[in-house]
Amino acid sequence: AGGRRADSATSSAPRCFRAVPFAVARGPKKGFASGQGLPLPGNKARCVLEPARSSGEAGAETAEEITLPVFPLSMVAIPSCEVPLHIFEARYRILFNTLLYGEDDVDEGLANTESPFVGTKQFGMCYVDKEGNIASVGSVLEIGEHQQLDDGRLYIQNTAVRRFNVTEVVEEAPVLICRVKLLDDDRAEDENPENVALARDVVEVFQKALALGSSLDSSPEPPKPEQLSLPPTELAFWLTSLFPQDPQEQQLMLQIDTTRERLERLKEIFEATYNYHVARNSIKSALSDE
Questions:
Q1: Does residue 144 contact residue 159 with C-beta atoms inside 8 Å?
Q2: Residue 143 and residue 25: Cα distance in Å, rounded?
Q3: What's this model's pTM, rounded to 2 decimal places?
Q4: Do 281 and 289 form a contact (C-beta atoms < 8 A)?
Q5: Distance in angstroms (rounded) separating the CA atoms of residues 253 and 58
Q6: Of the ranges 49-58, 94-103, 124-133, 207-216, which one carries the lowest mean pLDDT score?
Q7: CA dihedral of residues 48, 51, 53, 56 (deg, nearest 10)
Q8: Three-state secondary structure of 177-241
Q9: Residue 278 in contact with residue 212, Cβ under 8 Å?
Q10: Which residues contact 68 (CB under 8 A, 6 or more apart)?
């Protein structure tokens, strides 16, 4: 997630929105698609647009709900990771100048001071696949540093802070406004000895796969990232941020409801990667012996 930049021109919310095969949701509005995404290799039971699983009815009833402007984009915002954006489409320039109202270097003439979101510096992001389907599970982003260019474009640095599940569409245009249920990750899981041990296993197989892949490509083994010592929940999200080239897999990880399940999935991925490199090494050795 860190270091990625996306352009607002790659997203056209109304067009993507209409492409979604909607399911019935609570309230008078329609909800986001559920279970309509593309199957993922090795995990065909889950789809990209599958909603996050609730840990129980009581939790679902008491979960905090808020209303947010939602920015659909072909990338996944991973909690605890940075998401840089380049904003130049007119409707999003209005939105982000509204969100940043009160800050220095903001075009106050574009800001909608009557908006309930004025000055909040907070918005949602949902992944959009190549077919235009919008994921129902996304992340809340908080705006950090920003730069306004002379031509009105904006560069903004954001941090994903929390997952959410869309429960209701309030407005479709000019930008999506949605009612969302905030999803909390149980940080008590970080103290679970089984999760701590599983996190160590994930780090070990990740390092093995990284080292073997580097040796096969004749590249020096990279230094051990300091993030490998993060608590299990943050570790799982950080490792997920390392494969932006596979946003469907990242979206699956975002939708998984527990740290343990995320770590188990990551272990599967890195074990498969290590085994792939082992096979590469065997083929390379066999060919060199001929």
A1: yes
A2: 30
A3: 0.76
A4: no
A5: 24
A6: 49-58
A7: 180
A8: EEEEEEECCCHHHHHCHHHHHHHHHHHHHHHHHHHHHHHHCCCCCCCCCHHHHCCHHHHHHHHHC
A9: yes
A10: 117, 122, 123, 124, 140, 164, 177, 178, 180
Q: 216-245 burial, b for 16+ CB within 10 Å, e for fewer?
A: eeeeeeeeeeeebebebbbbbbbbbbbebe
Confidence grade of residue 142 (pLDDT, cut at 50, 70, 90):
very high
Residue with tokens 């979206």: 251
Q: Exposed, middle or buried by CB within 10 Å (0-12, 13-18, 19+), for 176?
A: buried
Buried b or exposed e, range 144-167, using 16+ CB within 10 angstroms = eebebeeeeebebebbbebbbbbb
Instruction: State the average pLDDT for the chain.
Output: 80
Structure tokens at 269: 């991925």
Which has the closest alpha carbon to 165: 179, 149, 147, 146?
179
**Rounded mean pLDDT of 50-68?**
55
Structure confidence by residue, pLDDT tens digits, 230-289: 999 999 999 999 988 999 999 999 999 999 999 999 999 999 999 998 998 888 777 776
pLDDT over 60 at 113, yes or no: yes
Question: What token pair was written down for 94?
Answer: 């209005």
Which secondary structure element, helix H or strand E, spans residue 47, and what is its range?
strand 43-47
Q: Provide the strand spans (E) within 74-189.
A: 82-87, 122-127, 137-148, 154-171, 176-183
Q: What is the pLDDT of residue 13?
A: 33
What's the rounded Cα separation, in Å, for the pair 245 and 280?
21
